[in-house]
Amino acid sequence: MQSVITVILSRIIFYIKAAQLIRRVFEVNLEVNRSQQKGLCGLATQDSALPLNGVGANGETAESITHARREYLAEIYRLQSSTDEPVTTTAVAVRLEVSPPAVVRMIRRLSLEGYLRRQPYKGVRLTPEGEREALKSIRRHRLLEAFLVTVMKFGWDEVHEHAHGMESVINEQFEDRMDELAGYPKRCPHGDPIPSKDGQMPAINDVSLAATPLGTEGVIRRIRNHTPDKLRYLAEHQLVPGAAITLLNRAPFNGPVRLKAPNGEHVLGAEMANDLFIEIGRGA
Asked: Which whole number is the average pLDDT over 256-266?
């Protein structure tokens, strides 16, 4: 009986702490326009890199620097995963919506610390240590999203911004408790795989709906675009991870696609079709 009471009290305390963190996030003046971008899980928007002396102009601490550089590393990881070429400064600046000089300063810092390997006039690649730090950032963000949906009952269209705001204010112990209470999820609510605690990214065996031939049957596995209104639209039409679909038609010249789902046929624009990733031949 005593052990049951202890477990209950432990969970109550955890929920109180979670609620306090969420309230703290709500009080922060988050940038409104970031909720309109094509947010990728874990994507940060920073306007400047911190100097090498460990304290920024506004008094940022070493802890906030760690969070900032992990976000850069996470985005470089995504860019690096989609190409065989080194990641350019321009590509990072575009994806993070920051100025190129800010990216140059951060890349210089990360290179000096051993997280990046620079190739003159070409770009950068993550070192093994840089990849480990990138996966830590991605894991925390996606776990937060899963926890907010599964335990706190947020909508999948709400959690991207909230998770971003909470990343820098939780510790590893809190992260472990979220993982446990959320049921040790393997994917975030949008279907992106969650790296393991030891830094392993699960294999992804899916393809964009826009790149599949007509007649393809498969199951939606992940949604690349996390814009709230688009996620709400997909949810309203039950086009969510786990839904079985068949590609029926694709208009020429980058036109819309028509697909069949259990609840009927749907037409999606080419841009949205490009952001739906399916696993072919599984459960359709």
From this structure: 94
* Domain CATH code at residue 91: 1.10.10.10
Of 79, 114, 131, which one is at a domain's C-terminal end? 131
| Per-residue confidence band for 22, with pLDDT thresholds at 50, 70 and 90 | low
Report pTM: 0.76
6 class by beta-carbon count within 10 Å (0-12 exposed, 13-18 middle, 19+ buried): exposed
Residue 4's pLDDT is what?
57
Cα(76)–Cα(74) distance, rounded to whole angstroms?
5
Asked if 207 contacts 280 with a C-beta cutoff of 8 angstroms, the reply is: yes
Domain membership of residue 116 as a residue range: 37-131
Determine contact, residues 143/198, Cβ cutoff 8 Å: no
d(CA 203, CA 13): 36
Tokens standing for residue 50: 């911190």
